[in-house]
Amino acid sequence: MAAEPVNVNEFQELARQSLPKMYYDFFSGGAEDQHTLRENVEAFSRITFHPRILVDVSKIDMSTTVLGFNISSPIMIAPTAMHKLAHPEGEIATARAAAACNTIMVLSFMSTCTVEEVASSCNAVRFLQLYVFKRRDVSAQLVQRAERNGFKAIVLTADTPRLGRREADIKNRMVSPRLKNFEGLISTEVVTDKGSNIEALASGMFDASLSWKDIEWLRSITNLPILIKGVLTCEDAIKAVEVGVSGIIVSNHGARQLDYVPATISALEEVVLAVGGKVPVLFDGGIRRGTDIFKALALGAQAVFIGRPVIYGLAAKGKHGVRRVIEMLKDELEITMALSGCSSVKDISRRHVRTERDRLQSML
Fold it and tell me: Coiled-coil region(s) at which residues (predicted)?
């Protein structure tokens, strides 16, 4: 029998072996040259630790809160599309793993299980990710269904006026599965002879006119707090605070949209400084190790999201795989905290890491 995976990268390899190439490429791929895709992971390796010794770390507390909800560790599940392509139980398996780990899952707008199916699968705090469609009534209906079914926040993905150019999907002629949330509301059938069926679907449905003033519209259709996902600059961070969002997610969409944007870990501090503590800043992109999570927290993120690692766990071992991925990252974070001299998440500070910029400034 093959040995159990001991880290996220080994789960990725298991997923690659168990998924059809079209689906593995869909989940693992990025935009165009995939420069940012590589950089999202590699940029972490250029941040080093500044650990403190002889601190009492006999008890480590990783628990934290996000929007007032208690979670067991600062690791949440990012919205990723179409989980049934990874495993027949789809988002229900992921939701159950999140509940078992006492953390928050953000359900993708493009999920293969309905809002209602996920809501009734287990008790847990869940958020809904939102794309705004040209047919606003469809987006509004889904938001209201989520609110009725006990979802606790809306995560507006704001970096997708159009879908990024994902060449593997074009080459593989990637086909979208049934998106059950929209059945009876809008047709998700597309016929295209030009490569990716998902790209054709998105260009037909996504509203490219979406702008800051539409946050007002979103507020008018829901009482739930709104988080904005896709912020990479201080200018947009300031704007987000001005329009009154409840939180900001620093994200480059897993490097699937605009290639050559910075790695999210490289953009995080600029956003944190611009926000100045007015709303929580959350982090998404490139997390593969507990050390990565520690670095994001030290640079000012309140918690992190994991996307692809969840899919890899799901593809390899279903609900158990997702749970193992979260537990592995938690265990790694716990060791990193102990060896850095931090007994709680609150103890992790900017002084615990050195970035490339810090090193350059020290040379001046």
Answer: none
Report, as residue numbers or ranges, the catalytic residues. Answer: 253
CA distance 257 to 254: 8
29 Cβ contact partners less than 8 Å away, ≥ 6 residues apart: 37, 166, 167, 168, 169, 256
Q: Which stretches of 10-151 are assigned E, i.e. beta strand?
A: 48-49, 64-66, 69-71, 75-77, 105-107, 126-130
Distance CA 107, CA 96 (A): 12
CA distance 125 to 119: 10
3-state class of 63 per DSSP?
Answer: coil
What angle separates helix 308-340 from helix 90-100, to the nearest 10 degrees? 20
The residues that bridge with 128 in the sheet, in sequence order, are 107, 154
* 160 contacts 208 by C-beta, under 8 angstroms: no
| Whole-angstrom distance, CA of residue 117 vs CA of residue 130 | 17
In this predicted model, what pLDDT tens digit does every residue of 240-279 receive, in sequence order?
A: 999 999 999 999 999 999 999 999 999 999 999 999 999 9
Q: How long is the chain?
A: 364
CA–chain centroid gap for 185, Å, is 27
Return d(Cα 146, Cα 150) in angstroms, integer.
Answer: 6
* HEC sequence for 231-298: ECCHHHHHHHHHCCCCEEEECCHHHCCCCCCCCHHHHHHHHHHHHCCCCCEEEECCCCCHHHHHHHHH
Return the DSSP state at 98. H
| Mean pLDDT confidence for 97-106 | 98
What lies within 8 Å, CB to CB, of 229 at 6+ separation is: 79, 129, 155, 156, 157, 158, 159, 249, 251, 284
Please answer whether residues 240 and 248 qualify as being in contact, where contact means their C-beta atoms are separated by less than 8 angstroms: yes
Q: Closest Cα to residue 202, out of 150, 260, 261, 133?
A: 133
Cβ 245 vs Cβ 228: under 8 Å: yes
**Would you give the DSSP letter of residue 114?**
-
Q: What does pTM read for this prediction? A: 0.95
Residue 185 confidence class, pLDDT cut points 50, 70, 90? confident
- For residues 239 and 229, give the distance between their C-alpha atoms in angstroms, rounded to a whole number: 13
